[in-house]
């Protein structure tokens, strides 16, 4: 599907799992074992945090294992169960009453229950980002594209997926600036001006006007902050957050019936084994929720 078209609604799933780390993989495995129709969103490496761990001594049965080897064990496990990872970034989860709508940059998916296992983002917001959110600052360029037709936009990208939105906006906006917060840049279209500077602050009055750098400033009509993860309360409108994490009960259920969370996104301690256990609890309770409908 081409960017800019209406989102395509895929088939409905029993359970959608968002995240492919220990919590997400555990949830997916338990959902499949219970014969539910499961879809998993994540990355091919499953978990960047896990793969970078040099040695793990407290994962039961895997003393001294490297993060990469543990990740490979996870990958082998889900391969044997024919669990596929869909590499689409989830932008939002909407509670629709009898189901959930899960929106990615290109598609819309539906599920009767959802387990969010996104981990936590350690990236800090740009000062002014929260103040001007919805007032010239946004998190989805393709979503807001019509607003900025023939206008100037600046896109701060935290991973290569942001390049897709920058490339798309070139056909809409009169001028596109791209500020990458990563290296290397993979594929930015000719005509997009790349600024390799660190954003300091977004300023304005009733609307965002400028992006400040250490050594200058950039004026634009719209500013998009495209992170590799979305703040939890923005990911799921209406969900209760406590100290920056999903507020869940002992069943790993949030305040929204049918919506569960597991792993680091539910709070400390940030431990792989704790995450895997929570993923199982979340999935089993999601299964009970499905069976009791």
From TrEMBL:
Residue ranges annotated for the FAD/NAD(P)-binding domain, each copy included: 13-279
InterPro entries associated with the record: FAD/NAD-bd_sf, FAD/NAD-binding_dom, Ferredoxin-NADP_redctase_2
Record carries keyword Isomerase: no
Keywords for the protein's UniProt record, in alphabetical order: Flavoprotein, Oxidoreductase
Record-linked SUPFAM superfamilies: FAD/NAD(P)-binding domain
Gene Ontology molecular functions: oxidoreductase activity
Protein name: NAD(P)/FAD-dependent oxidoreductase
């Amino acid at each position: 599907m081409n960017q800019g078209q209406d989102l395509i609604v895929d088939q409905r799933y029993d359970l959608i799992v968002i995240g492919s780390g220990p919590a997400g993989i555990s949830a997916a495995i338990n959902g499949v074992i219970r014969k539910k129709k499961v879809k998993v969103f994540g990355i091919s490496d499953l978990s960047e945090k896990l793969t970078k761990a040099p040695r793990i001594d407290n994962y039961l049965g895997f003393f001294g294992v490297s993060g990469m080897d543990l990740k490979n064990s996870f990958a082998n496990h889900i391969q044997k169960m024919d669990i596929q990872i869909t590499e689409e970034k989830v932008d939002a989860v909407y509670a629709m009453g009898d189901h959930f709508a899960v929106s990615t940059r290109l598609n819309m998916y539906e599920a009767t229950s959802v387990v969010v296992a996104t981990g936590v983002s350690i990236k800090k917001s740009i000062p002014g980002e929260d103040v001007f959110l919805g007032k010239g600052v946004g998190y989805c360029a393709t979503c807001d594209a019509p607003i900025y037709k023939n206008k100037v936009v600046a896109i701060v990208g935290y991973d290569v997926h942001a390049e897709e939105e920058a490339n798309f906006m070139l056909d809409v906006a009169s001028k596109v600036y791209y500020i990458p917060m990563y290296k290397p840049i993979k594929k930015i279209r000719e005509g997009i001006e790349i600024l390799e500077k660190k954003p300091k602050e977004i300023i304005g009055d009733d609307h965002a006007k400028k992006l400040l750098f250490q050594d200058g400033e950039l004026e634009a009509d719209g500013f998009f902050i495209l992170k590799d993860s979305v703040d939890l309360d923005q990911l799921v409108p209406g969900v209760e957050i406590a100290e920056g994490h999903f507020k869940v009960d002992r069943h790993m259920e949030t305040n929204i019936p049918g919506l569960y969370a597991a792993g680091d996104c539910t709070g400390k301690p940030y431990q792989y084994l704790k995450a895997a256990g929570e993923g199982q609890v979340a999935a089993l309770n999601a299964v009970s929720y499905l069976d009791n409908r």
